[in-house]
From TrEMBL:
One of its GO terms (molecular function) is aldehyde dehydrogenase (NAD+) activity. It holds the Pfam family Aldedh. Belongs to the aldehyde dehydrogenase family. Gene3D superfamilies: Aldehyde Dehydrogenase, Chain A, domain 1 (3.40.605.10), Aldehyde Dehydrogenase, Chain A, domain 2 (3.40.309.10). The keyword Oxidoreductase applies. Keywords: Oxidoreductase. It catalyses: an aldehyde + NAD(+) + H2O = a carboxylate + NADH + 2 H(+). This is aldehyde dehydrogenase (NAD(+)). One of its GO terms (biological process) is carboxylic acid biosynthetic process. The keyword Oxidoreductase applies. Its EC number is 1.2.1.3.
Length: 494
């Protein structure tokens, strides 16, 4: 099988196999199908990797099924935990390679990938390693005797992941799936698959038995669709757009009614009250829309600021937003990488053009950035009307929509007037207000006096059209388990 060498952080070579990882071996896709991977920093072709076809998906599912009905079901739960811990150690010792690959094909800052995404991934593996031998049922009384529940693995599962934090999101699925005793096929994103090629080698090195974790790249419309329609796949965990989430639900409905969990988009509100620590609020609200170029599902893309501090906030926000140095994400001096693709850049700049043409007040950015890569200036609009497209639709780019409010009830209504409900941030020094507003917001998580902040022991996911099911936290296990009830009748004495 072919290997490729790319140049990563510090000029170090990183070598990955380009094949599909099925049954612990790399192989070519049917008909030798490949897809090209671009470097968004330059617009140049970076690599080609095998692109799974429907028959490759069948092979991955068959391998997973053989593993599940073979020895995997009898492996000690604590041994599943050991494998997850070993994978965490290997990811940690290969962090430079993995962060380099995410910088090269996803445009993620090397430092951000290593310090945030990879650390989060290893934390999550270790968190769920601890759960592997602690999954228990209940003992229940019934009039005729007693009953108990067994929490059993679902079986052959699949994970379909996006490109914006590909390793971390993959591990959010892999760790609870394996802790719960399932086998897994991971469909990596076609725009940024190189991390998956490296991860596959680490899965083998960690000692997972063949077929337990299979990693394939391929087009969503081909490999992703084939997984979603497959009758032997019992569960799909999906992170991505709402459009594709709906397609996956339809495919489940028209095939075998597989279990589906969806982590979809967002239009996160950040609410800054007058009593907030202004510097802290500025730090987090700017981070919330510029981290990874706003290509974050929980991005704080709607910013509501109390009228009494609005003008000062806008001045400081615009100043802070402008302080970036765009360029190669592998370099430590770079603070802003490219967005993922030319198509994504066009989509974002189309929103900026629309907002300017609609007469919405441009506060910062909005200009074209030089270079061949797909760079988009950090941009903010102020006094944005509630019904403006940039206040309603997920842009998935570094574009903030800011508006003022005067009362708590008004801002809660504005924040909740969205079809999405993923993350929200509240900035205030008033504890009662923080609690009132947090409970009134319709979303999956609220951060008070900060933004984002992922922890492996806290559930992450959405309500409304941001999806259902949770990654991380004990609750994530629910998505990878089924409950069987066993009832014992006490027979009367003879
Ligand atoms: P996308 O939906 O286009 O693709 C996501 C994955 O789905 C990719 O692997 C793709 O190949 C696959 N796919 C595409 N068509 C498919 C089909 N018909 N059947 C099965 N699979 C298919 O999303 P994207 O552009 O990669 O990512 C951006 C979106 O993801 C944004 O909307 C963002 O908000 C969302 N996202 C959500 C979270 C979260 O946790 N809620 C995290 C990251 C990204």
């Amino acid at each position: 099988m072919s290997e490729i060498k790319v140049i990563g952080f510090g000029g170090q070579p990183v070598i990955v196999n380009t094949g599909l990882f099925i049954n612990n071996a790399f192989r070519l896709a049917a008909g030798g199908s490949e897809l090209n991977v671009e470097n968004p920093t330059t617009g140049d072709r970076l690599a080609s990797v095998s692109a799974a076809q429907r028959e490759d998906v069948d092979a991955a599912v068959a391998a997973a099924q053989a593993a599940f009905y073979g020895s995997w079901r009898t492996i000690l739960p604590s041994d599943r935990g050991k494998l997850l811990n070993r994978l965490a150690d290997l990811i940690e010792s290969n962090a430079d390679d993995l962060a380099s690959l995410e910088a090269l094909d996803a445009g993620i800052l090397f430092g951000e990938s290593k310090a945030l995404h990879i650390t989060q991934a290893t934390d999550t593996l270790r968190y769920f390693a601890g759960w592997a031998d602690k999954i228990t049922g209940q003992l229940l009384s019934i009039p005729q005797g007693h009953a108990y529940t067994r929490r059993e693995p679902v079986g052959v599962c699949a994970a379909i992941v996006p490109w914006n934090a590909p390793l971390m999101i993959t591990i959010w699925k892999l760790a609870p799936a394996i802790a719960a005793g399932n086998v897994l096929i991971i469909k990596t994103p076609e725009l940024a698959p190189l991390y998956g090629q490296k991860l596959a080698a680490l899965v083998k090195e960690a000692g997972f038995p063949p077929g337990v974790i299979n990693i394939i790249c391929g087009l969503g419309s081909v490999a992703g669709q084939a997984l979603a329609e497959h009758r032997d796949v019992k569960k799909i965990a999906f992170t991505g757009s709402a459009v594709v989430g709906r397609q996956i639900l339809k495919a489940s409905a028209s095939s075998n009614l597989k279990k589906v969990t969806l982590e979809l988009g967002g239009k996160g509100p950040s609410i800054v009250f007058a009593d907030a620590d202004l510097n802290n609020a500025l730090f987090w609200t700017t981070t919330g829309i510029t981290a990874n170029n706003g290509q974050v599902c929980a991005a704080g893309s709607r910013i509501y600021v109390h009228a009494s501090i609005y003008d000062n906030f806008l001045l400081a926000f615009a100043e802070k937003l402008a302080k970036t140095s765009h360029g190669d994400p592998l370099l430590s001096e770079t603070t802003k990488g490219p967005v993922i693709s030319q198509r994504q850049r066009e989509k974002i700049t189309e929103y900026i053009r629309y907002a300017k043409e609609s007469g919405i007040r441009l506060l910062a950015g909005g200009e074209d950035l030089p270079g061949n890569g797909y760079f988009v200036a950090n941009t903010a609009f102020a006094d944005v009307p509630d019904d403006a497209r940039i206040m309603q639709e997920e842009i998935f780019g570094p574009v903030a929509s800011i508006a003022k409010f005067t009362s708590e009830s008004e801002v809660i209504a504005k924040a909740n007037a969205s079809e999405y409900g993923l993350g929200a941030a509240v900035f205030t020094n008033d504890v009662s207000r923080a609690q009132r507003v947090s409970s009134a917001l319709e979303c999956g998580q609220v951060t008070v006096n900060c933004w984002g902040m992922l922890h492996s022991n806290t559930p992450f996911g959405g309500v409304k059209q941001s999806g259902f099911g949770r990654d991380m936290g004990e609750e994530a296990l629910d998505g990878w388990l089924t409950t069987k009830t066993v009832k014992y009748f006490t027979l009367p004495t003879e």
